[in-house]
Structure formats: structure tokens, C-alpha cells
Amino acid sequence: MRPHTPPAKRLFCPNPSLSCPSLLAMALGLLIPLVATACAESGGRGRADDGTQPRGAVTQDTIVVGEIGYDLGDPDAPIIVIEFSDFGCPYCARFALETFPEIHREYIETGKVYWKYVPFVLGIFPNGDLAALAAECAGEQGVDQFWQMHDELYKEQQAWKATRTPDVFFSELARRVGLDVGRFEGCFDDRRGAERSRAANRFAAYVGVRSTPTFIINGFPVQGALPIDAFRMILDEFSPR
Predict the structure, then answer these.
(1) pTM score > 0.85 for this model?
(2) Could you tell me the CATH superfamily of domain 12-53+60-234?
(3) Other residues' Cβ atoms within 10 Å of the Cβ of residue 21
(4) CA 241 to CA 239: how far, in whole Å?
């Protein structure tokens, strides 16, 4: 008698988001490290503090990709990039502050690239899970507010990783970027963004992400904070001829 094999996770593809074929290609691609400038999980497995499944676990969860992460650009762009980054990762900060602004200007604003940012919690950085929660609570007030908090979290990475009062620190960041602080603090205290963080980590586990930053570019996986010239070369290879 054949043993019963539980069904794998399913990707649900709502219309406003990415196409099913593209998502399947992205989700099933092997992650091939091209450079070493990436933060990796200790011991080769993600920590389960946030309730995500260990690497390799097969569950019946449905992953609704359109409800995960934060998007920029034209959904009909010829190039789709999914970025998995941890707010506590120094290489992610380098990419976010030095490389991504150029990519945004040259490729996203011009309609060449559709970008999805997925906040991934590796579980190895002090206050990293709370930084992701702060970003999700900013996102509760709007996509623009998420991106403003995204920038501040990377700029202030060393400070919030060292603080012993992260709730106070993140409330000050919320005030700095012009959020409704009372609403932000209510979200933060009630952990209202925690389920989005868990969903993001489940998606990352499904794809096989084990270091940050990791990018899935039209189904092709790239690991590490590539410099702008290297990233341009890859994006240009995927551009229509």
C-alpha cells in the first residue's frame, strides 16, 4: 500500500497581483547563490519563533501572494522581481539605501519592472521581528507609509538593534514619518501585523529562501546585495529585445 503524501502548499493568485505561471516559476526555482553579500540563517534553518514551519515541512496552507508584501510599479511590466529582505540584515540595508533608489528611478518608474518587497524575518537579529511588525503597522496606514518606514528602519538599523525599548523607538520612527502614532501603537501593541509577517515567512519558506537579500527575477533566483552595475546587467538581460 502506497504511503499517503500530504498535499503541498498551494499558491493562490488573485487578479490584482502576479500571474499564476510567473508565481509558480518564481516559487519553484532553485536558489543559486551568486555572491556572498547576504545574511544567512544560523544552522541552515529558520527559527520558528514566529510560528512559521521549519524548512522542508510540507503543509496544506494556501499562500495568497497578492496579500503578502508591498508592491511598486506596473503589474504589466515585462520584468517581475520579488525581494525577500530582513530589516536587521546589514546587506539588505546596503541594498535598500544605495542600490534600490537607482533601480526605482531607472526601472520601476519607467514601467520596466514590477517589484514586490517581502519582509522576511530570519530570526537572527535583535528586535528583527519587531522591526518587521513596525513596518507592517506602518503599512496598515497605506503603502506609501510602509515604504517611508522601510527607509527609516534601514537608516536606523544599528540603533533599533541596540535599543532595550524597541516599542518606544519604533513609535518615534512612526512619528518621524508622519504616521498616526496612536493607531500605530495600537497595531504594534496588539500585534495586528503579526499574521502578515507569518504569511511572508511561509512564502519565503515555500520558495526556499535561506538568506537575505534574495531576489526572484522572472523566475531566476539571485542571492546577495548586488551592486547597481551588476543588477542593471541582470535586469537588462530580461528586458524585451
Answers:
(1) no
(2) Glutaredoxin (3.40.30.10)
(3) 10
(4) 6
